[in-house]
Structures are given as structure tokens and as C-alpha cells.
Amino acid sequence: MPRTKAKAGEFKRSPCPVANTLDVIGDKWSLLVIRDLFAGKTIYSEFQVSPEAIPTNILANRLTRLIEHGLVEKSAYQERPVRYAYTLTQKGRELGPVLLEMVKWGEKYFPGSKAMMKK
Amino acid sequence: MPRTKAKAGEFKRSPCPVANTLDVIGDKWSLLVIRDLFAGKTIYSEFQVSPEAIPTNILANRLTRLIEHGLVEKSAYQERPVRYAYTLTQKGRELGPVLLEMVKWGEKYFPGSKAMMKK
DNA sequence: TATAGTAACTTGCAAAAAGCAAGTCACTTG
DNA sequence: CAAGTGACTTGCTTTTTGCAAGTTACTATA
After folding, report:
1. Which long-range CB contacts under 8 A does B41-48 form with residues at least 24 apart?
2. Would you say domain A17-109 falls under CATH 2.40.110.10?
3. What is the average pLDDT value for chain B, to the nearest integer?
4. Residues of B numbered 57-116 whose beta carbons fall under 8 angstroms of chain A's beta carbons: which are they?
5. Contact predicate A22/B33, CB 8 Å
6. Assuming Cys at both sites, which of A32, A46, B8, B51 could form a disulfide with B69, CB separation 3.0 to 4.6 Å?
7. Quick check: B97 and A112 CB within 8 A?
8. Best interface-test mutation with B: which of A14, A18, A48 has the largest number of B CBs within 10 A?
């Protein structure tokens, strides 16, 4: 029997804001999806063609997780066939500074790497 | 046959600084160890008593990874018995701003969470 | 109308990483 | 010399990843 699905934020492993933040975005992929959203990408296939080549099942999983945590919204932008656009919520956009600091650090310590983020 | 051990930074999944940064600290635990180092912790047992209760094998693994990536240094601070102190390198300390932004975001979106980081 | 194509996922399964408990090693202390 | 302690390591089960193939709902073409 699968265990009961936990709602976003229901369990906390600690009272530390860093730990709580990591429980939402602490993995190899979530912040890359958010980076793409900042870069203006909105549809499934756009995320797939990023240079890191995220596996499709992981992408689907991360998008629903980000929605559950309230960082991303999904809305149909056309019918027949229905197509969805993913966009950042205010909560998601407020991760911009985190991303920005990672860009700075990454550009400094991985020479040759270069951000392509929109502001 | 186990595959050849990759040196830190040898392979890159993309030219993006965010992706490269995540390859170093993109998991649930690494930044918590770094947080503890910022908080002044230096020895193994101190990291273990943090509220998140990191499993001992994961702690050992993360410390060596952080050393391999040049974010942390290990030095004996006493002989008989030999005891080691872990400290941040300059490269590691420069992750401070990333941590700081996570603290801000976490404090905003996880009411009740409160940072205990030293500056 | 049948055939092919496409976007957006879902499913199945093997491999890698995480997590828990117990064990080891080098000492120190009573 | 028996017990204790800090710092890990090992073994094993569970969970998460990652790859590939399959599915669904349409559209476009012959």
C-alpha cells in the first residue's frame, strides 16, 4: 500500500529555513526548470530541449511538485488540442535571487560557463 | 568494473553555471553541512547533532565530496587521538550569498522557521 | 477515410543513491 | 584490562533516477 500522499509543506524535517527550502528545490533538476521559466520557457517541450536533457518522467514529476508547492501554475493556453503553459507564481519568482547567486558562483568557479537567463 | 573516478569538475552536463553549481551542491544535504560550517561547526559529531539528523554515511560522503570540490578543508587539530576539523575554503565561503537568499525565502514561505546562521 | 505525425505525458524496469543499523578502529579513561 | 568515545565504514533494504517504450488526443496529409 502506497503511503498517504503528503501535502506540500506538511512535514518539516527541521525549523531551519534552509532545510525547508531544500525540501522544495534541493535536487539536481528543480532549479533548472525554474531557470527555464525565468528564461521565458512555458511549454513542456521547451523544457525538454534544454542542454541538460532532463528525462521526461523527471520533468513531469518536477512540474507537478513545483505546482504542489505553489511555485508554478499550469494553464491551458489553447483548446483542441489542449495545450498547457507553465508559469512562475510570485512565490516562484522570488527564488530569482537564489538563482542569481548561483549564477555568480557558477560563472566564477566554472570558467566558460555562461548564464542565459532573462532578468 | 567500477567506472573511473571522476575528478571534481571533470564532466559538465551543460554550459550553464546554475547546472554546474547544482552538480556540486544540488541535493538535500550538502548545503546543510555548509550552513553548519558557516555556523562555526567544525567536527564530525557537531554536524551529526543538527536538527535534520543527517545519516552518518551520508555525512561522511558529503564531507569528502565537498573536499573534492574544494569547498571544504580537513585538518588535524590534535594528535593522539587524531581529530580533524573541517572548515570552509574561500570557494566554500563564497556560497554564503546563496545560503543567505535561501534563508530569506525560507523565512518568508515557512512561517516559524528561523535561521541560526552566523554571519 | 486511412496513415502518419506530434505534443505531452505515463509506464516498466534496471541502476544509482539514500537511509538505517550494526560494526570497526584508534585511542582514552576508570 | 574492561568499558567508553569519536569518527567513520559496511551491509542491506528502500527510494529515487534515468532510460526506453508505450499511450492519448488530436492534426495534417494522401
Report:
1. B42/B77, B42/B85, B42/B86, B42/B87, B43/B83, B43/B84, B43/B85, B43/B86, B44/B84, B44/B86, B47/B86
2. no
3. 89
4. 91, 94-95, 97-110, 112-116
5. no
6. B8
7. no
8. A18
What local confidence, expressed as pLDDT, does residue B82 receive? 83
* Mean pLDDT value across chain A: 89
Q: How far apart are alpha carbons B94 and B105 in whole angstroms?
A: 19
Residues of chain A with C-beta less than 8 angstroms from the C-beta of B17:
102-107, 110, 113-115
Q: Which residues of A touch B52 (CB under 8 A)?
A: 13-14, 16, 19
- Domain-wise residue ranges, chain A: 17-109
* Mean pLDDT within A10-31: 91
Per-residue pLDDT of B15-62, as tens digits, reads 999 999 999 999 999 999 999 999 999 999 999 999 999 999 999 999
B24, A113 contact by CB (below 8 A): no
**pLDDT per position as a tens digit, A28-52:** 999 999 999 999 999 999 999 999 9
Nearest to A109 by CA among B9, B102, B66: B9
Protein-strand C interface by C-beta, 7 A: A 43-45, 56-57, 60, 63, 83-84; B 27-29, 53, 55-58, 61, 80-82
A3 touches chain B (CB under 8 A): no
- In the structure, what pLDDT confidence band is assigned to residue B13 with cuts at 50, 70 and 90? confident
Chain D nucleotides reached by a protein CB under 7 Å = 6-11, 15-21, 25-27
